[in-house]
Amino acid sequence: MARNGNGSPPYFIWLGEHDVDRAIAGGKGASLARLLSLGVPVPEACVLTTAAWEAFATSTGLQSPSAKDDPARIRALVANAPMPSPLVDAISHIYQRFEVLPGAHVSLAVRSSGTMEDSGSLSFAGLHDTILGVRSHAGLEIAIRQCWASLWSDRAVDYRRAARLVDENPSIAVVIQQVVRPDVSFVLFTVDPVTGNPDHTVITATWGLGEGVVSGRVTPDHIVVDRDGRIVRYVVGAKEFMTLEDPPPGEGTRQVPVPRVMQGLRALTDDQAARIASIGQSLAEKLGFPADIEGGIADGQVWLFQARPITTLQDDNDVARARLVVSSIPSIRHEDHSQRKQERTAP
Question: Cβ(194)–Cβ(318) under 8 Å?
């Protein structure tokens, strides 16, 4: 924890080392801290707190933006205003600590963490920015500014207006996390997000990084697992593309075609799907709510990147996200697990 000299809240906190709450770490940051406290495997992460955003906003005259302000003007100020020197120092400290972690190259995921998002009633899912594959100090500052600016994206502003939050003073933290390079990424709902069936865990999975699943650019595999770990349904998605990091010294990500032979393969084995479903169910019980979980498998290790409450019954944006993640399943590729089992055991 790096506390400011006047005793005000710190500009950054290493998650897992100190207690944090939503007011200082935002929804994603507070959720990751909770996961770490429960012993969940989460990549090394730091949060640039709401105090950092507020210090920057004050320095640019944005400490209390009005709901009537032009979002484009605010975004331009965030992108171009000078960064106060204490924040420059904080960002440098964060980057230097990631530099000494094991691995040949720094690679960071920089995620917006609004104080209103990932709550029990509102998710803001997909409305604030995430930047993957950040590999330089300069790139980290640019990504942080992009996350801050996304608080004032047209979609985020419209969402707050629709939720009647226009009189609120929104604030934002930024989660900075070591990138895990997964062989397979997944999104897991511990209850069926469309039907509400509590006995079904729904998993979507694809090759590479998970941004293709979350954004809907990829048709993923779709798996339904029951409470006993049995595969109720496995639909193989086309998985036409996968998202990968740009190789060093580049930054960011790129989409590459999936070899045709891999498109027809299942991203998860039955055992892996059952294991992921069990992890999700156990975590949901500890968290006390049905959860929407993002994660990946790298070298056989399951990692979780974030978890939020499923709010599909209250939140139209979450309904859209859930349908995006679990839709576009090609029926021609449908594999019924019980039928496959009969076929394998037939003489």
Answer: no
Statement: residue 154 has pLDDT above 80: yes
Helix (H, G, I), strand (E, B) or coil at 25: helix
For residue 32, what are the CA distances in angstroms to 17, 66, 79, 326? 12, 30, 27, 24
CATH classification at residue 19 = 3.30.1490.20
Q: Give the CATH number, domain containing residue 295.
A: 3.30.470.20
Q: Are 24 and 147 in contact (CB under 8 A)?
A: no
Query: Domain boundary at 178, 208, 229, which?
Result: 178
Q: What is d(CA 118, CA 203) in angstroms, rounded to the nearest whole number?
A: 19
Instruction: Compute the distance between CA of residue 213 and CA of residue 185 in angstroms, rounded to an integer.
Output: 8
Say what the pLDDT of residue 346 is: 35
The number of distinct structural domains making up the chain is 2
d(CA 197, CA 79): 44
In a domain, 4, yes or no: no
pTM here? Answer: 0.82
Whether residue 167 is contained in a domain is answered as yes
Strand, helix or coil for residue 39: coil
Question: CA–CA separation, 159 vs 76, rounded Å?
Answer: 20
Is 6 domain-assigned? no
What are the DSSP calls for 56-100, one per residue?
A: HHHHHT-SS--TTS-HHHHHHHHHHSPPPHHHHHHHHHHHHHHHT
> Do 271 and 210 have their domain in common?
yes
**In this structure, are 141 and 284 located in the same domain?**
no
Residues spanned by the domain of 120:
12-178
CB 172 within 8 A of CB 115: yes
Q: What is the pLDDT of residues 284-328, one digit of tens each?
A: 999 999 999 999 999 999 999 999 888 654 445 544 444 444 444
Integer Cα distance of 312 and 195 in angstroms: 10
